[in-house]
Design goal:
6 strands, single chain, binds adenosine-5'-diphosphate, alpha/beta, Macro_dom-like
Length: 179
Amino acid sequence: MKLDETLHRIELIQGDITRLKVDAIVNAANARLIKGGGVDGAIHRAAGPQLAEACAKLNGCPTGHAKVTPGFNLKAKWIIHAVGPVWKGGVANEKSLLASCYHQALLRTKELEAKTVAFPAISTGAYGFPSDLAAKIAWKTVLSFLSSNVIPNKVIFCLFDSKSYDIYASIQKELLKGN
Ligand code: ADP
C-alpha cells in the first residue's frame, strides 16, 4: 500500500481517550494489570468496576505484550491493555519493548476485527520514556503495520497534552511533506 494512503488512515486527536467512540482503545497498563494512575486510572474509572474484575482474571501481562478485555461502560467495545517499558536511560531494550507493545496491540485489533483503534502515548507519563523518541517509535510501528494490514482501517493517536500533540503533529507534517 502507498505511504500516502497509509498516512491518511492515521488521525491525531488531543483529548481524553476514554471518551472516544472507536472499536478499541489501548490502555497504557502495568504488568500486573491492576488499576494505576494516569490513563489507566481514567480508563478504569470510565469503564467501571467490572474492568478490574476482568483484568484480575488475565494473570498479568509481560512488558511489550498486550491483552484484551471488554470496554464495559466505555463507548469503545474493547480495551487492549498494552504494557510499555519503564524508561531506564535507554540501556534496557526500552525501544524494542515499546515497538513490540504497539505491534502486539495492533495484532489484537486484527484478531478482534476492530476497525478503529485509539492509542495514548504509552510509557511517556509515569514510565518516563522521552516523548520525542516514543512518538517516533509509535509512528514507525503503526505505519509499518498499516502498510501491510487492512485491519485496523483507522488508527487514532489520542494525545492528552498539547506538548505530546505537537510532537505527533510535527512528525505527521514531515511524513506528508516527504511524500
Ligand atoms: P505510562 O505509565 O505508560 O507512562 P501514563 O498513564 O502515566 O502511562 O501516561 C501515558 C500518557 O497518557 C501520558 O502522555 C499522559 O499524559 C497520557 N494520559 C493521561 N490521561 C489520559 C487520558 N485520559 N487520555 C489519553 N491520554 C492520557
